[in-house]
Design goal:
By secondary structure, the chain is an alpha+beta fold. The protein has helices at residues 8-11, 25-35, 54-60, 69-72, 86-95, 115-125, 127-131, 152-162, 182-187, 224-234, 256-260; strands at 18-20, 39-44, 47-53, 100-105, 108-114, 140-141, 166-170, 176-181, 238-242, 250-255. β7 (166-170) and β8 (176-181) form a beta hairpin.
Length: 265
């Protein structure tokens, strides 16, 4: 990637797989699980139709479902042309609170621009902004967290209501013990999670059976550069912030949007 990149076509990577209208929800779930995609584009004879995110798949997918891409596809809040400037594209994405925007040219899907593309661009072209910013100055304080014993149905409800794709997991003392994400739920094969509560407390899977542990975390004194490198290299969307290495008590969280916003300063 060139440091002199100016438009989204310069930094967006062609790493996405498209699906057709008749592809099954189960096939899309496998693609998202195997490749770690958060979103896929739906096309019809090459023409862009819309997108499907992990949230849509987790609501319906299962080995017995007959749902197809045409039943799940939604219209994105933002569509970019390859010639749109990087800063302008970021502003548009932040305005509608979207981490991914499809790039479409003359009706044909090219790829997605993700916030990780912008962060990777910043690592090359605006590294000093990342080096000179402490996590404590951009993190979200008192983040929403869940407990290991919480049912995944209640966690899923939080994710939908708050539009979060992941939540830190803490013990009774607020110590970080893991993180649970939509990908964890997808990877474990859970489906129609909103119906799990109907099974009763004793039968509902708990967070501790799904969460990623141990999880990556940073400190208030860490730099945005450290966070950016972790996000890009490990495909992480958000990182919990611990008070210090001794207590590991959760005090904040930082996500890709927090890092990408630094480009506008």
């Amino acid at each position: 990637m060139s440091v002199v990149a100016n438009v989204v076509a310069d930094i967006a990577k062609s790493r996405y797989i498209t699906v057709n209208l008749d592809d099954s929800a189960e096939a899309i779930r496998r693609i998202m699980r195997d490749y770690g995609f958060r979103v896929v584009a739906v096309t019809d004879r090459g023409k862009f139709v819309g997108v499907i995110s992990r949230a849509e798949i987790l609501l319906v997918t299962g080995t017995k479902t007959e749902a197809r891409a045409r039943d799940l596809v939604v219209q994105p809040k933002i569509v970019l042309e390859p010639s749109v400037g990087i800063v302008d594209a970021l502003k548009q994405m932040l305005r509608v609170d979207e981490w991914y925007a499809p790039i479409v040219e003359k009706g044909y899907f090219k790829t997605f621009l993700g916030l990780e593309d912008i962060i990777e661009y910043m690592l090359e072209a605006h590294k000093s902004k990342l080096e000179n910013t402490r996590i404590k100055n951009i993190m979200t304080l008192k983040p929403v967290a869940v407990r290991p014993e919480d049912p995944i149905s209640s966690v899923w409800k939080l994710m939908i209501e708050l539009r979060y794709t992941g939540l830190p997991v803490v013990d009774s003392k607020g110590v970080i013990v893991g993180i649970i994400t939509q990908y964890d739920l997808l990877r474990k094969g859970y489906a129609r999670i909103h119906l799990e509560a109907a099974r009763g407390p004793a039968k509902t899977p708990k967070v501790k059976t799904v969460m990623t542990k141990p999880c990556t975390y940073l400190y208030p004194s860490s730099t945005a550069l450290e966070a950016a490198v972790l996000m890009v290299n490990r495909n992480i969307g958000r990182i919990p912030v611990a008070e210090d290495s001794k207590t590991r008590r959760l005090v904040g969280i930082i996500d890709r949007e927090d890092i990408a916003k630094l480009l506008l300063l």
